[in-house]
Amino acid sequence: MFASMHIGEWLALLLPRQVERGLASVILIGLGGWAVYHVYRSKEERREGLAEDGGSAVAGRLSGAVQVLKRPEQGDLDRSGTISQKEALLIGLALSTDAFGAGISSSLLHLPALSFALLVGSFTLALIRVGLSLGRLASKTKIMKKANVVPGFVLIVLGVVKLFR
Fold it and tell me: Where does the signal peptide begin and end (predicted)?
């Protein structure tokens, strides 16, 4: 995220203020829309019974990361129900590609790179444990099965707010 924020800072020097604000908004809206689209797309694929082979996620590191973002269950390559170190690395790569886009967008909004990257990293570490615990408890409730679109909608709303501010 720190590196992507520096790329965003460099872009901010080259672009007029209105363009950089619009670009930041478009990136946020795009990330949110992409997340929502893939939630609904994967639900539709499950309904149709179209299951992709988990081995396809190993084809290349970047394509594997994209596959994991599209279908998180692809991270469990051996279908064991647990995540090995290699699988955790693949999932981490997928999440870091997502954070890269967010970092560029954040720097275009003139957020300080080092403190923002440290803050995001700290919150990520702290909230992973909380999320795992809450996820186990809530995964069987009907409302939580629909809640996976919320992060995408939050990004879209943030992008729209920034666009008109």
Answer: none
Measure the CA–CA gap between 134 and 114, rounded to whole angstroms: 30
Burial class (CB in 10 A: 0-12, 13-18, 19+), 14: exposed
Tokens matching residue 130:
């909380």
Please tell me the predicted confidence (pLDDT) of residue 58: 40
Residue type, position 26, single letter: V
pLDDT tens digits, one per residue of 130-164 = 877 877 787 777 776 667 777 788 888 888 887 78
Q: Quick one: tokens of 84?
A: 């090995």
Answer positive or negative: Cα dihedral of 129, 143, 95, 106.
Answer: negative
Length of the chain: 165
- Residue 54 CA, chain-centre distance (Å), reads 20
Q: How far apart are CA 88 and CA 128, in angstroms?
A: 13
Burial letters for 77-103: b for 16+ Cβ neighbours within 10 Å, e otherwise?
A: beeeeeeeeebeebbebbeeeebebbb
